[in-house]
Amino acid sequence: MEERIEQTDEPVTPDRIAADLRDLGVESGETLLVHSSLSSLGWVTGGAPAVVDALMAVLTPEGTLVMPTHSSQYTDPEVWENPPVPDDWEETIRTERPPYRPAVTPTWNVGAIPECFRTYPEVHRSRHPTYSFAAWGADAEEIVADHSFENGLGEESPLAEIYERDGRILMLGTEFDTNTSFHLAEHRADREQEVSTHETTVVGDDGDPEMITLEHLSYEADDFADAGEDFENDRPEAVTRGTVGPADARLVSQRAVVDYGTEWFEKNRE
Fold first, then answer.
1. 155: exposed, middle or buried (C-beta count within 10 Å: 0-12, 13-18, 19+)?
2. Which site from 74, 179, 202, 246 is most exposed, i.e. has the minimal number of CB atoms within 10 Å?
3. What are phi and psi of 211, to 5 degrees?
4. How many CB atoms are located within 10 Å of the residue 242 CB?
5. Cα–Cα distance between 70 and 239 in angstroms, integer?
6. Which residues contact 172 (CB under 8 A, 6 or more apart)?
7. At a CB cut-off of 8 Å and minimum separation 6, what does 70 contact?
8. Is 83 helix (H, G, I), strand (E, B) or coil?
9. Considering only CA atoms, which of 64, 20, 32 is closest in space to residue 181?
10. Are 181 and 34 in contact (CB under 8 A)?
11. What does the alpha-carbon distance between residue 71 and residue 131 come to, in Å, rounded to a whole number?
């Protein structure tokens, strides 16, 4: 907390956040995918709800606010690294963890703002147990509906729905290394890619727990920062930079990011 006070000239209020977002170029009525870091905003009066309130105020109910609400605690424990778990724990974790429930299951490692956002009234969260997204506003239900259990960041995902609506990405104190839209580009790249599967539990249509098998690309993100740096260098006109409170912020076209990333992965990945 002391560090946040030191990085802020005065308390960051919802009105200041909203004004800075408008100055950056965020518009009412648009579709906006937000990646965020609460700590980067300094001392925010009211914490995460202040940021969510400001985003909603700027977009208005005629726009659509989307955030990743991933639950990596429902990935395969065999691949966990930070920390790894003992081998003889893995089957117990797979079979005994509670089923994924969109209204109940917390996010994991995506930040305080998405975790707060998913609990808001009229926010809809998709059914994918590991790669869910939450949305609010005019197109919220359509964006998260029918999120496929196969390839959760691919063509039948909220990312593809945002692409179809020509939405934009707001990086609020974050960098391209966490930009999930590059995963959609991974799907669209014309190259050989490994596919992974793992089992997890969700609530079935009858309300009872159901074990399902998820199939997805073996997603990589180690080179996202490099792809993002090249994108900014090659397409400077597609990136609007500014600040929201003390946080660095970027506003970019999601279509431009995905299209660029698709070609970049084809050229730069073996």
1. middle
2. 246
3. -80, 125
4. 15
5. 26
6. 34, 35, 36, 37, 40, 41, 51, 113, 244, 247, 249
7. 107, 108, 109, 110, 130, 131, 132
8. coil
9. 32
10. no
11. 7
DSSP 102: T
Residue type, 37: S
Cα 10 to Cα 20: distance, rounded to the nearest angstrom:
14
Q: What is the pLDDT along the chain (270 residues), one digit of tens a residue?
A: 566 666 667 899 999 999 999 999 999 999 999 999 999 999 999 999 999 999 999 999 999 999 999 999 998 898 888 889 999 999 999 888 999 999 999 999 999 999 999 999 999 999 999 999 999 999 999 999 989 999 999 999 999 999 999 999 999 999 999 999 999 999 999 988 888 888 888 887 778 888 888 988 888 899 999 999 999 999 999 999 999 999 999 999 999 999 999 999 999 997
**Which residue type occupies 26?**
V
Residue in the block written with tokens 């740096």? 229
CB neighbours of residue 15 within 10 Å: 13
- Domain spans of the chain, in order of start: 2-268
SS3 for 136? strand
At 203, give phi and psi (nearest 5°).
Answer: -85, 120
- Displacement of CA 173 from its chain's centroid (Å): 14
**What would the two tokens of residue 61 be?**
């109910």
Give the pair of three-digit tokens for residue 79: 């691949």
Q: What is the pTM of this model?
A: 0.94
